[in-house]
Amino acid sequence: MITDDTIVALSSGTGGAIAVIRMSGEQCAEICDRVVRSAKGRTVASSKGYTMLYGNVTEADGGVIDDAVVAIYKAPHSYTGEDMVEITVHASRYIIRRTIARLVEEGARAATAGEFTARAFLAGRMDLSQAEAVADIIASHDRATHHLASQQMRGGYSEELQKLRSRLLHLAAMLELELDFGEEDVEFADRTELVQLMEEIAAKIESLTASFALGRAIKEGVGVAIVGRPNAGKSTLLNTLLGDQRAIVSEVAGTTRDVIEEHLNIDGVDFRFIDTAGLHQSDDQLEQMGMERSRKAIEQAHIVVALIDGSTLPEENDNAPETIRELLAEIGCEEDERMIVVINKCDVAACDSQKVAAALPYPAVAISARNGEGVERLVEQIASTIDSKRIYTDAVTVSGARHYQALMRASEALSRARNGLTTASPEMTARDIREVLDCLGTITGEVTSDQILQEIFSKFCIGK
Ligand code: GDP
Known about the structure:
Order of helices and strands: EEHEEEEHEHHHHHEHEEHEHEHEHHHHH
Structural class: alpha/beta
Bound molecules: guanosine-5'-diphosphate
CATH architecture of the largest domain: 3-Layer(aba) Sandwich
């Protein structure tokens, strides 16, 4: 990664009235002063940081491209830690293109994806997990994703890992010192302390990896598959939940042929409701394809809402559970901890579906998707599957797959080290502990390589 030149890119998004072109690097002031001319003869070079300059963006022959306001940042007090300017122009594609072209003509280089943030990381302005959170905060789309990203950006995450790592680093150094003494039977690293620390770290890693399910669900949206026989009321329920008529409702069985996905925000968390095609035997090729997609959707869902048509239940409350069991088996929803049984059409059911639902040995709600009865309770039940209290506390939640994988690898190496402490050679133990240190270090960027950096920053947009 080249860091000694001056880079430029459009940093604002498409649309809008104004555009922000960002430039960072040692020659920033010089280049900008050759392109943006202030009427009063002010220059970026002679200006202080955190000030603004007004001027014209000009062609090489002096022709005016646009008016511009330049925000000036002086190293190290900028996003990248380098000298930086942000040139605001009108958001015309022509103006943007010409302005960047002029800056490049005068010596700047077009920035690659994520290069501003990569420089911020390399300059020590933020650690790697914070740099990754920049991408997440830009992509955040609701209160929960915003909270996770901003928590990570503020460094809550890195702090915990760095503390663990530095304690282990100390003990690893002691262990390695023992190796240097070879034959002499010395013990610098207190074994009881080492075991204690390993257990503490293992517990921490476990709580972090356990939070990943929640973190990922929040980031990707919590998948809720609505499953049921044709005509159970899946489309109607989805419509009632969303308050509009998006999915097709039909009296003919098997109308919802494809998987329909709709989003509902509950307590700041994005829930993805997936209306699956009616799961039943069908020769229709189109329907079969839809059903295959349904199975996939169920497999990947966090929550499975098993919808039962209450109007098909027997009159006797006591007989209903048996029929429900059969219906659940038919739609492939046996004993699944993700399942919420919903008895629909309580308005026309012959049995007392509220009572039947309350007596079932798994979470169950009786509703009428058509008139809305009980739907609020169902929403509460769905929301309660996500630990929203945890999201909004200061508890650290892992949401990045890269971090999760590094933690899993650290955990494996740690258990090898722990098991080998009494049986394996000290060399092996030292090596395993090094691996734990490396894995934890890749998360914060204390241990890094060009390849890791490239992988991370190439996923960013240009201008970030
Ligand atoms: P899907 O095939 O599971 O998507 O079922 P639909 O949502 O298309 O509903 C099938 C039929 O059941 C439609 O005529 C709906 O109006 C009706 N229906 C759905 N929910 C209810 C309900 O709560 N009560 C009554 N009485 N009818 C319902």
